[in-house]
Every structure is written in C-alpha cells, then in structure tokens.
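Extended Data, panel c. Modelled sequence:
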Amino acid sequence: MHKKSSMSDRIEETIIAVLLGLMTLITFINVVVRKAYANDPPAFIKFIKLENIGLWGNELTVFMFGWLCLLGASYAVKKHAHLGVDAVINLLESKGRRILALISVTICIIFSFLLLKGSWDYWANFANLPQTTGRWFPTGFEENFRGQGWYEVESVSMPGSLRWLAWVFNDGVAYEKLPRLVPYFVLPLSMALLLFRFIQAAITIWKGKIDRLIASHEVEDELDQMRAQHEEQAQ
C-alpha cells in the first residue's frame, strides 16, 4: 500500500503534470494549425494569435521540457525513484549499506553543489546579478560585472503579466520577447532543489531510516504489484 502523499509531494507532482499537459496541448494545437490552416488561417485563429504558433510553440515546448526534466530530477531523488543496481549493496550488512550510502550521498551533494554554482553563474548575468568568484567553490561575488538582462528569447512574446520585469532587469526598457532570465531560472532553481533533496536523503540515511539512494528493488516490487492488479481486473 502506498503512503499518502504529503502536500509538498502534491505541489511538485502538480507542477510536473501541468508542464506535461501544456506541452501536449501546445504541440497538438501547433499540428492542427499547421496542417489545417497553414495557407489561410480563419479569423478566430488570428484573433487569438495562433497563426504563428509554429514559431513560438516549438521554443516554448523546449523550455517546458527542460523545466520538466530538471525539476523531475530533484523530485525523483526525494521519492528515491532514480534507478540503480543494488546487487553489491545487497551483499552487505545493514551497517555496510549505510556507510556506502553515506559515501554516495556525500559525492552527490558535492556534485550538485558544483552544479548549483555553475548554473547560478550562467543565469546570473541574464538577471543583472553578479557571478560567483572561485573556480570550483564560490569565494564571493564579482564586483565589476556587465549585466545582460536585455537578452530575449527568439520567438516567445512577452506576456502582459510579466511587463514589470522590464523595470527590474532592463532599466525600464520594455521587452518585445520573453527575457531569457525567465526560462533559464530553472537552472539555479532545480540545482538548489537537487542539493536540498540530497541533503534530506543524507539526513534520512544518517538516522537509519534508509540504507541506500537507489530503489531498483522497490521498482521491481511496484511492477509486480501493477501486474497483479491488471490480472485481477482482467478476471
């Protein structure tokens, strides 16, 4: 029996589901408009500004797919849903499994911290913020930097609800297209969540509640349960 999902689980699951649903909807509308109304789109298509969905729809779908994958990675750590091979781990006693798990999660924390630094340094200039100093680990922030908050995406128009970003990041100059700082924000956000989830996993391992990060054996058990449910429904 599966445990009842917490509120934070449902929020993350909802975000992922909304992204996937929007990707599917935009792709479907894109195909319909291109195939059925490519040469002479009707008035209602022009009224809702979908005649150019082939341009901005593809780019927006790519951004959503990136958000989906990056946020899904941290969520999978939280749910222990990443696949792995536990053949060696199962040969050890509980204490040995915990030691290996702590070593693994420590490496993952260091790696995700490096990813967080790199993602911040890449995104920061698009938001007129300083990059960090230091090659591997941050030792401070750059004092003299050149912001690039005026960079825009290629095709996605600027929604009216985000017009205020021009005053914060572009000296009041209005954006024609969506500024890159918006879709690229998923980089530091997802890496911060990934680091947070690995720290959570480390605490859980340290307390002895789990003895591994991977869940290959649990996935096999869930597949067996699904097969049993399908067999019962078939009968």
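The chain has one domain: 7-234. This feature is highlighted in the accompanying rendering.
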